[in-house]
Fold these 4 entries.
Entry 1:
Amino acid sequence: MRNLYSEDAFTGLEAAIVLIAFVVVAAVFSYVVLGAGFFTSQTAQSTVHTGVSQASSSMTEVGNTYGIEDSTKSYIAIVNVTVALTAGGTPLDLSSMVVSYTDNNKGHVPNMTYVGIGTDGATCPTTSSGAGTWCIGQKINNVTTGALLDNNAQMILMVGLPSSATPNTQISLNFQPSVGAVLPITRTIPGGLTAVQPLF
């Protein structure tokens, strides 16, 4: 008896199903690859924007760092550091900056207390008190009110040091703004103290 059903039709149907399966798998794979590529490019773009923001919001030291001896003339009680923005930098709010101190006499203050702006009535560190605190002692050519450091402006920061800042001691101050790079300053206190001396 003659077979009324042809196997060719089933073979064609199977081939079509396999082809559709391959197309679907390829489409899903390409979607995953493209999605990963888009995610990577967005991450790279975000990293570039963050890097530009960090690089454009940095401080630099201007001039010398000065040390002022304490009232007993035995250690440096106050360090004055003048800071400004790097060229093309964006304004920085210094009130949210973290200032840390360390020296080779095991003196360490991880987060000094910000007490305000001296010209606005804040109690800045003195030669007899104020260790572990810092303030903005003076603003030069700064148009904006408050602790925002403008372009083409300078601020003198007064930092109160602990009694471990004795002669022949190496001290390190780190100024970490909320945005931007850390400004590290390392100096050595001379063997003989005067009322005010530059630190190198």
Entry 2:
Amino acid sequence: MKTFNLPVEFLRENRIVPSEDGKVFITKKTPFYAVEDIRFITGKTPEIVIISDEEFNERLEEYISNINNSLEGENEVNESFLEDILVGSDTPVIQMLNSLFLKAVRSNASDIHFEPFSDRVVVRFRLDGVLHEISTIPLNAYSQVVSRIKIISKLNVAEKRLPQDGRIKIKIGEKKLDMRVSTLPTVFGERVVIRLLDRSDQLLTLEELGFESDDLRKYERIIRKPHGLVLVTGPTGSGKSTTLYASLLKLKTPRKNIITIEDPVEYQIDGISQIQVNPKIDLTFANGLRSILRQDPDIVMVGEIRDIETAEIAVHASMTGHLVLSTLHTNDAPSAVARLVDMGVEPFLVASSLEGVVAQRLVRKICEVCKTEYEPKEEEIQEINRNIGKELNIEKLYRGKGCENCLGTGFKGRVALYEIMEIDEDMRTVISKQPESMSVRENALKKGMRTLIQDGILKAVKGITTVEEVLQVTQV
């Protein structure tokens, strides 16, 4: 029964009701720009009929009733996707947006940025973690672009003064995309960032992430423990969630009860119960974790340890027969110990519960199409040796020249660098007595821990990435 795909909140706030025969009913209080939005959305000029407030209320109630009736019997109302954008549209703005979405997906972009300035609007894609300018939009057309994005992500079109967050679900051929939309008012207009999640992509396995063979064996040994706390650390966008998902895929069996609490749930894994954090109803990490522990879990994954309450519950859960996987924001693996202690967890509890910490970063991979080898200069070799603390005999390194396949960047795709700290009895003693990062780090290095920069240089020598990329990502 819905003539236009418009949120009821938008209709009620702007005093608009569409009808089945293409007419649009408005009142004297309807703002003129709202009618323009209708014209923009439909690509047509509807017949406008002015009605009284009383008649508007009646028609709106009837419209809402028709929507509810049409939704009865649908099993996945919240999972409904917009029509396939490859089908196209008559409206120039919709065509332009669809074209941008298509280009972003084909180039494997993770984000689309719309950035308004005084004379133009710049569109940039984040490719392999780096922003690249793709095109510009004329200022006089940008308001229509923002309106279209707000409509399909069910945001308030009329609200231009406050930040808003929404979601879009679209199809491109057989691909199903989840897009998280964020708007932010700036001096020159609303800035929009769209995060792309390809729901049809297969989750990566541990073997595909970039672990060296000895590190992979060490990490699998850690997560196979029957109980304890395992932490994955690193800054935002370093691939921590991907590592946790790959870990759950490795651990998943019909004999294990695995429950996660995440913010947000980025990928759904068959056979695992996943919970979405919802602060509006007080479903926080801490409250959700308490409830999960009453569900007789074997393995629990907590999206992030953000506060002392969550940290203490996770630690106690790991000491009472549960394997707990989670993330922290620290620069390296040893710093995770100090971070937990700084949050308020007693050092002896950290020492008793912690089984392992993995720090990670993402570096860009050299494009296989234009990869070339070169002889490194003496200064470059000295820089490498200085950073890893030992002398290496390096005769050749690799880089990408830039081609169509990598859009001239010389890089295509990303791989993770890892630093794995396994906790043994000796390390537990150090953590209990001297939990500061330096002491923990010294002990870990004595035990043979490969640092992030050492792992990166190893990958650079193998021709997977470049030395410059490794140094840029790992030096803090």
Entry 3:
Amino acid sequence: MTGTQGTPAIELIDATKRYGDQLALDHVSLQIQPGEFFCLLGPSGCGKTTTLNLIGGFLPLTSGELWIEGRRVNDLPPHKRNVNTVFQNYALFPHLNVFENVAFGLRMEGLPGDAIRSRVDEYLGLVGLEAYADRSPAQLSGGQQQRVALARALAKRPAVLLLDEPLGALDLKLRKQMQVELARIHRQVGTTFVFVTHDQGEALSMATRIAVMRGGHVIQVGTPREIYYRPVDRFVADFIGESNVLEGELVGGDGGTEAGRVRLADGTIVGAARTAGAPGSGPVAVMVRPECLSVGPEEPPSGSPVLRGQVIDVAFLGDHTRVTVRTAAGDVVAARWHGDRATAAALEGLSEKEVFVWWSVAEAAVIAR
């Protein structure tokens, strides 16, 4: 394997990590391309932080291979890998000011003073902290400290920047601001970012691709849109945002990723797109996001999958109205309306009424149960 054009920034091949009898990572193979903002997403204990620590060299592989920029690094210590890490707790030196915190790694590398000054000024400018160079970390807010940690990591110009839940200690408003900032900085520097989070919103808003993990396995890799609208199974569908899942039996379709027909518990047959990972026959589920459902008192034109049901709740939630319906098959589904006020008010009048629920076949997916 050589560092030719097209070589992945990071490649894991059958990567396995055990802690005694506990299997933390189970034969994971994964490629991350240069310049990606790649998110490792999953619940606690899924293996995402273990994966990050393996890449950073903080943990040894039990078996398998790890390549960075076409170089096998299984036995290389962290300081000999072209990566740097931003941790959740920032790890700033309290006795050094902002400038010296960012300069620390560059001094360790032996860069001359003028080059250090230029590099620190460049990256403090990138994170918007030029005016804070003389301040101590204690004089900064949490968000500002996070920016200093980011500038320090990027100043060494690593090929890969590892970010271990770096926004977890921030409040909600500041976390959302930093999501925007991180995406902007990534676009400017072009460094490969590998970002660990359990927050689906963070991953969807920033990543170019996402790996959803569970129990030491990578369940699905794809763009945010693919992961959200075309999950491979119920775990991914439920973990990534809110979903309506209707269980049934696959009774027809054109195969591949064409439309499939699913018979629900009450005998209703509905259509949905067949995803690449969907079963070819037998028990399946139809997944449709709340914003893709329509609800109304009159049956829609033919061609759309349609369910009958009764409205059991209508809730105005500011930016949208949520309508919850119990279908004839016994499933409870939720629709989300982001439209005009008049329609939202009309939806509120549907409480306890018999209604129809429908969707576009292209906006639903047949998934594994």
Entry 4:
Amino acid sequence: MQRCIELALNGTGKVAPNPMVGAVIVYNGIIIGEGFHKAFGQAHAEVNAINSVKDKALLRKSTLYVNLEPCSHIGKTPPCSDLIVDKSIPRVVIGTIDPNSVVSGKGIEKLRNHGVEVLVGILEPGCKKLNRRFFTYHTQQRPYIILKWAQTKDGFIDKIRDQNEPIGVNWISNQLSLVLVHKWRAQEQGILVGTNTVLLDNPQLNVRYWEGNAPLRIILDRNLRISEDASVLDNTSPTLIINEKKNEKLKKTEYYKLKFCKNELNLVLNKLYKRQILSILVEGGKELLESFINQNLWDEARVFIGDRTFGNGITAPIIDQKPFEYKILNDRLNIYKNILCL
């Protein structure tokens, strides 16, 4: 099962809104086949594992291990449970049940109804952690939310800027930390910021220092204050502008009209849920980040503490939990897990 998890990780950033899945086939204690779900719309892990077995006759005497319950419905591909039955695989070991109501328990039931011996719950915590985005999406009907910001040693996320100060980012963290952020962007489906972040920093919100898919750029711009020459409106990657003025689609940029109110974050998350966005990285400013924190709408927070000091400025959000601490050259990275969402 641990090998299934290792294989599944090869699909990071490529399979959403599907889960990451790895499969291993064992005959007489020897692995004779393995596979993983490589990309959304392509063959599932079980199919790739079965196809990798050279002597298909051995399948009738083998055990298939998979970290998530085999599907039982027709989606982009045929049901994996049907294939397992068709190949007469006698035993299947499953890490965890699929939380998707379309599948949940039905794949296991189909296998058992056809005489397959099924064992469920092997390394279940690790299997759920692997697909925590997928589980959050299906159990809480919202994306998995990762907050991210950088702050100085003296606790500021930005300087107080005046009108004469040029637009651009006041860099706090080092270059290696920047590369890591772009790796994170490639792993998530969406990246969310507010109006002020775009106006002050003019970010591109794409993946430049890591290979991978660019996330959907999601901008909360209530009154459409962002100018047309902003980098996020360059139509190089899909962009969603959530506002109160209009619904419109221009090339890769979509304007979605939404009434901003006290419940606006939940309305935004519901919109993203309906678009099958499993996870978002929130890289907004203090106000947006604190809105998520105060409403307990977050699952992880990733906070860089750089080697710079500002003396004064805009204070960083505070999470009253003990983080996991890591060093990235002269930066410190604090990772928080929302204990109320575990």
